[in-house]
Amino acid sequence: MEVTRGDVIRRGSEAVVHAGTWEDMKVVIKTRISKGYRHPSIDLQLRSERTRHEARMLRAARDHVWTPRIIDIDLKEHTIMMEMIEGPVVRDLVLEITDGNLDVRPDGGRDQISAIGRSIGAGLAKLHAGGLAHGDPTTSNMIYHDGEVWFIDLSLGSRGADIEEKAVDLRLLREAVESTHPGTTLFDDAIDGYLSTSPDGDAVVEHIERIDSRGRYRRRPAV
Ligand SMILES: Nc1ncnc2c1ncn2[C@@H]1O[C@H](COP(=O)(O)OP(=O)(O)O)[C@@H](O)[C@H]1O
Ligand SMILES: [Mg+2]
């Protein structure tokens, strides 16, 4: 098996992502890196477990949404090799649409944002219907390819997700949109897409408010 490692796409706190090629195919190799503050044997164990978990989640998600195919996983090297999905991360695409183009485009990019938001929501609804929670649904963990939103980075995801975990996914999306794409309709559009796709969407969306009010209650100063 001929694998060539190319440029670093991203160096995060937990993992380094390389572009590469395998046979004739463009691939991405994600390697979990050592955290110096952990005991060496615990560090090795955690990296293997998290690599295995992420690969399992990506495989499980593939039954429900667009997600890269896994080509190989190496628990000793803590790597996952997967197909490269060509296209911008949704974060960059949305920033490009909203950045300074509002005067140029007749609709200010609203229709495009709305279509992307609806795809995000529909995708999360399908994941949730399959019992999966994404765990980190930021717009950097979605790639826009061929008119579809692809989901990556399910390392914090879970299976057997209950209504709480589904609502938490939507809250995380809301936080990500508020901080990265403030002033856009992206989150509301995602909720529209979610509601029109999910069989129990209403209950999940209502549950967001329950979690919100719990948070407000907790933040009240003690008297
Ligand atoms: N399969 C893939 N195809 C194309 N780009 C990818 C792929 N997987 C990851 N990337 C790129 O690498 C970045 C980091 O990958 P990610 O899995 O989110 O790692 P991290 O855990 O560091 O956030 C992504 O935001 C994306 O730009
Ligand atoms: Mg990520």
Which terms summarize this structure?
223 residues, alpha+beta, Phosphorylase Kinase, domain 1, Transferase(Phosphotransferase), domain 1, 2 domains, two-stranded antiparallel ribbon, 9 strands, binds adenosine-5'-diphosphate, binds magnesium ion
Description:
By secondary structure, this protein is an alpha+beta fold. It has two domains: 81 residues, 2-Layer Sandwich (Phosphorylase Kinase, domain 1), CATH 3.30.200; 130 residues, Transferase(Phosphotransferase), domain 1, CATH 1.10.510. It has six helices and nine strands; from the N terminus they run E-E-E-H-E-E-H-H-E-E-E-E-H-H-H. The strands form three sheets. Strands 1-2-3-5-4 form a five-stranded antiparallel sheet, covered by helices on one side. Strands 6-9 form a two-stranded antiparallel sheet. A two-stranded antiparallel ribbon has the order 7-8. Helix 3 crosses helix 5 and helix 4 packs across helix 6. The protein is globular, with a radius of gyration of 19 Å. The model has no long low-confidence stretch (mean pLDDT 94). The site of adenosine-5'-diphosphate has 19 residues, from strand 1, strand 2 and strand 3.
